[in-house]
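Re: the 169-residue chain
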Amino acid sequence: MKYKKNRTSLCRSCEVGITLIELLVVMAIASVVLALVFPAVGAGMSSLELQASARKVIGAVHYAREKAIHAQEPYLLLVNQKSREIAVSDLTGHERYEYILPEQVEISEITGDFLLSQFGEPTTSIRRFEFQPDGMVPPLSLTLAVNGRMVRIIIDPLTGSAKIAEANL
């Protein structure tokens, strides 16, 4: 014998759905989670931007070295600290590759054997590094910074290889 249940007789006033209080609780939990997660995501994005900028600088260094070897003439790596521009150029300035760092990324320190101006002093914001046709790279170190986080790009003068290291504040 089969029995059929009469569902309408159990609860006539029961409706399927969610209440306003349940919806408000879920929204409050979601807003707390977003408030905690959003700063971490923002920091992660700036960290990614810093790493990508460091790889672009390394790419410019490798490009300058390869162009000098291939053309058998010196090439320049120009680093403009104020405008955050990295450029590779031949000595005449006709062939030029430029990369401008994102707004948040700044060049906080430049060290190495850069060329001096015609008066024997370094220029205020532009540093010039000359890459030789034999593959020799001048000693070069750049520090990039964004939101208090810093990375140092160190170029080996003999091999031209580069490494990215976390810099201390």
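The helical segments are 7-10, 20-71.
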